[in-house]
Design brief:
The chain is 66% helix and 3% strand. By secondary structure, it is mainly alpha-helical. The protein folds into three domains: 120 residues, 3-Layer(aba) Sandwich (Rossmann fold), CATH 3.40.50.300; 78 residues, no CATH class; 58 residues, no CATH class. Helix 1 packs across helix 2 and helix 14 packs antiparallel against helix 15.
Length: 309
């Protein structure tokens, strides 16, 4: 059982003022300092003064916070039903700052049942849940189906996985270029990288859709201008244009490899030569360029640092 610590007088006065229904209060405090306690007290004081439970709305950010606050309110109200008159009067006076009359005492004992019998229960919910309830009440105005259901995280993950599988499997027989693009992504970023990319596209879909719509048919013209691409250029043509590498013709490469082996240059032997040899043997210009990039660039895309002498 947690040890109960006395609340400083100044804090108790501030909490009582913030929970008073007559005051419009903005409470800012650190986590665990009693904000939920103050909100629960405010709700109970509203109920105690005759406010209809269905007229009270409490919004929180998380389900855990909503459940915590609801539990605090119902726990207090349920305790009041079983307390003796003297103890109940003391509790109410401590909460509300004044001695309760007989009618207030009777009302306090009925609050638990009234809260339970309120249609839909006490409205202590998350912002998302509140917005969902509004949409269910006005589906025509929102232009959505009347009996819509919200996606939970598990269902969203399942649908995303199914869409990903259908998209990837459908590219093989449909568009060779698209299939090659997926193969490149998988090669560079692995399956996890592809999942992360697709998830980011889904999260930012509204912005991407707006960009594509605004760009129209010339959406990539800015990129072409930036990199000085010409109309009609292809990835294959660009990759072929850099081969053979200046200063790295086959005869020079043979000399370079022999020198690296003689000097036991481990960085060159382990990272550069294996991919460079594959690049010399590769006929496809795009694949050859990928191999050259692996040979001379680190995983972060930066060139290897020259050996220190």
């Amino acid at each position: 059982m947690k040890k109960a610590y006395p609340i400083p007088t100044d804090t108790a006065v501030s909490q009582a003022s913030a929970s008073d229904p007559q005051n419009s209060a903005w409470v800012s405090a650190n986590a665990g300092s009693g904000k939920t306690h103050v909100l629960a007290q405010r709700v109970i004081r509203l109920l105690l003064r005759g406010t209809d439970p269905s007229k009270i709305l409490c919004l929180t950010y998380t389900r855990a916070a909503a459940a915590n606050m609801s539990n605090r309110v119902f726990s207090t109200l349920s305790e009041w039903t079983a307390l003796g008159d003297a103890e109940l009067a003391t509790r109410i006076e401590t909460l509300d700052g004044r001695q309760p009359d007989r009618e207030t005492m009777r009302r306090a004992r009925r609050l638990f049942a009234e809260a339970l019998e309120t249609p839909g229960g006490l409205k202590i919910q998350t912002i998302h849940a509140f917005c969902e309830s509004v949409l269910h009440q006005f589906p025509l105005e929102a232009n959505i189906p009347a009996h819509f259901e919200m996606l939970d995280p598990q269902m969203e993950a399942s649908l995303f996985s199914a869409a990903r599988r259908d998209m990837i499997s459908g590219t093989a027989a449909g568009d060779a270029g698209l299939a090659e693009a997926f193969a490149t992504i998988l090669e560079r970023g692995s399956e996890h990288g592809l999942d992360a990319l697709l998830a980011e596209i889904v999260r930012k879909r509204d912005g991407l859709r707006a960009f594509i719509s605004a760009a129209g048919g010339d959406g990539f013209q800015a990129l072409f201008d930036e990199f000085r691409f010409r109309a009609g250029q292809t990835a294959e043509g660009l990759a072929a244009s850099v081969w053979p590498l200046p200063g790295f013709l086959p005869d020079y490469f043979i000399t370079f490899a022999r020198a690296a082996e003689a000097a036991d240059a481990r960085l060159v032997l382990n990272n550069v030569l294996p991919y460079a040899r594959l690049a010399f043997a590769e006929d496809d210009p795009v694949r050859r360029l990928h191999l050259l990039a692996k040979a001379f660039l680190r995983a972060d895309g930066k060139p290897y640092e020259p050996a220190k002498t």
